[in-house]
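Example record

One chain of 292 residues, shown exactly as stored in the release files.
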Amino acid sequence: MSAFASIMVPMSQGSTTPPHDLKSAGLALLRWYADAGVDEAVGVDAAALYAEATPAQTPAVAEVIELSKSVSLKPRPKKSDEEAAEDRAEQLTHDANTLAAKCASLKDLREAVAGFEARSHFPAARNLVFSDGNPDADLMLIGEAPGEQEDLQGKPFVGRSGQLLDRMLAAIGRDRTNTYITNVLPWRPMGNRTPTQQEGLIFLPFLMRHIELANPKLCVALGGSSAKLLMHTNQGIMSFRGTWGTLEAGALTVPILPTLHPAYLLRNSLAKREAWHDLLNMKQRLAELAAE
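Predicted structure tokens for this chain:
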């Protein structure tokens, strides 16, 4: 951008203004112009700034003129799309923290999530998928994101993977009357894709408040995205599934067990053996917690 930039340094013969004050004031003014986006000096007075110092000029004025030559008046470069996206994600995460902290109940939290601005990032989603099951249960299962059927019905784990999950729970004497279920993301990503790390971090404040308000005795992370987010690791799920961790959600501290997602088990039937071991491990830990 072009703008008129004129620095007038009042100085008469015999002025008593200290030279170092003139220098500081002149340089500060130049920097102010640069920060304002001025990139070109025009006009008689402005042009004089770039002229050689004359004998009538004091040393301080001449030095300010010389320094002006090194001050960049070019506009600052615009942020890249990636930088802008990172700034946007940071702002959304901040907003999520603020909103989640104000929620005193699961009803409040549901309304906050439903109205959250990041909803617009999931144009394919039809319905909010907040939770299913019993919010007073001692067991809380946390999946990754809704699929097509979940999006249509507004409930987590109701498609093929959900039907398998129900059978898995039934095998250890559980169902949705004594289990609470949610996801990292409450909205269906386009094409049922896996949630990105950035999306998980944006919605993490809501999820942590969700866990704190539900107050389960034990959490299970279903799938790599959920497990890595909640257990703060970048390892593949196969390297740490079945290994107990500790989850801190606000004032709540609970044990958490990472295991395989039912959708993965539908594609890899041999992995059901590991999942069954994790289910038995979870059942035993719940019994121990109930006995305490």
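Notes: The CA atoms of residues 35 and 73 lie 8 Å apart.
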